[in-house]
Amino acid sequence: MPRVSIILPTFNRARFLPEAFASIRHQTFSDWELVIVDDGSTDDTEAVVQLALQGIAQRVHYVKQENQGAYGARNTGVNHATGDYFAFFDSDDLWLPHHLDRCVAALGAAPEVDWVYAACRCVDAAGTVVAPTTFETGGGPRPFLSLHTRAVGDLHVIDDAGIVECQLTHGLYTGLQNALIRREVFRTERFWPEYRVVEDVLFLVRALLRGLRVGYLTDVHVIYRIHDGNSSGSAAGASRAALYRIRRESVVGLERIREEVPLTASQRRALQRALGRYYFWDIGYVCYLQEGDTAGAAAAFRKGLRLNPLDLKMWKTYLASIPRSWVSRLTRGAPAPARFD
Question: Which residues of the chain have pLDDT under 50?
Answer without folding.
Answer: 233-236, 332-341
